[in-house]
């Protein structure tokens, strides 16, 4: 079995507790690695290392930081296959998906490397004579990054690339279910020429390693991706110290198909929205809102395509749907399937654990579709985070948007229509951070991503994201030799 220690100050460091926990390969249902079980002591050491690295890292010329991020991208490119394999072993993602993600991850570092020397303040014309006022954007300091298990390296990159470009340093706490890829990734920083301490990783459980990081007084900001329940706790803890946060949380995203859509494209979009990554994506289009006039025909065609998905080993090229990443998550998905049945939703595909050809462990769930769902049912309101689609019929545009927005969340959404008016009006009416029209799951480092409502605060991606890791200073310089009356505001 592989053994993974923390990564602190540029070195592998065993846990202060001397304890390790096992990480399971969901494809075969077997433990494959032992991971350091971090505690407050390890977190403190990592924060000390990060804090010590901050002055020299933030003091580098921005173009030097940019060059290091470019170099990191080159090193990642060389190690992409290896990192992709580790991720597949640890969380069961399709290798083909990981291959694409690794390519993207390099571009993320290049994009923010390019932005590092373009962080410009402004000269501000004021109404005061003899005053020169300008703004500077400055890094925050030590950023605590807490990540989930579904796309560990990609979601870390969304935080790390802008944070480092802006001159911050990082202490990372990956998910206890998928720590290995982050620790392997840490080894690349030395090869790319980063000073030790700029990035650090402490592994372990949420309450044992995540909480001390969130509570640490020397951590200026928490960048978190995970469930809204943990997000709320982290937000509350950060509020006690008036810390900055970005929260990328869950979703119950509507995928709306109008009768005038290109139905072949919409079917593929619906499938990619819910069955890609076995539905374990925050942007899963888990509510299909289907116009009544095409309901039966569309559903029949959807069932044909979804029913032919190949389930099995995620390393194999022909596999479309791999396992669910963790045992607790698998149990949760199966429980939601039972809840939906008990609520009276009609199960028209799948509906339980998958034990057919290709199933190599107990962690496979059949792609599942429920028809006749009411938006008030739990299957339409709560995030399942698995390959389970709820189909809700609607009559007209007003009803479609009213159902779409009748949710606590607002992360992703899809709109399928050939009518440009509906595309433009609909994209304004839907309350979500992303609206895809005639496509789904398109993401880029150039474009901001984040949630409305309970799906989160702040944005990752694009120029906007770098501002999440900066604070604004307004500098006032008086060039007027006249001495002012000190008792009156200037
Ligand atoms: P989770 O909230 O259980 O855990 C996420 C991370 O938080 C883990 O590292 C965990 O150890 C840590 N953690 C938990 N409680 C903590 C606490 N009190 N203090 C500090 N750290 C704590 O989420 P998960 O099950 O790993 O991931 C799935 C969730 O993530 C889903 O809800 C999904 O929608 C969401 N997600 C959101 C996005 C997005 O960008 N919006 C992307 C991917 C996943």
Structure description:
Strands 15-16-17-14-13-18-19 form a seven-stranded mixed β-sheet, with helices on both faces. Strands 10-9-8-11-12-20 form a six-stranded mixed β-sheet, sandwiched between helices. The protein has a three-stranded mixed β-sheet with strand order 1-5-4, covered by helices on one side. The protein has helices at residues 40-59, 62-91, 95-115, 152-165, 180-192, 206-215, 228-240, 263-274, 295-307, 327-343, 378-381, 397-405, 420-429, 462-467; strands at 2-4, 6-8, 11-13, 20-25, 30-36, 123-124, 131-139, 142-146, 169-173, 199-201, 219-225, 244-248, 254-257, 287-291, 346-349, 368-371, 388-394, 414-416, 436-437, 456-457, 470-478. Helices cover 39% and strands 20% of the residues. The protein folds into two domains: 2-249 and 451-474, Aldehyde Dehydrogenase, Chain A, domain 1 (3-Layer(aba) Sandwich), CATH 3.40.605.10; 254-437, Aldehyde Dehydrogenase, Chain A, domain 2. It is built from 14 helices and 21 strands. With 490 residues, the protein is of the alpha/beta class. The model has no long low-confidence stretch (mean pLDDT 97). The chain binds nicotinamide-adenine-dinucleotide. The site of nicotinamide-adenine-dinucleotide (NAD) has 32 residues, from α6 and α7.
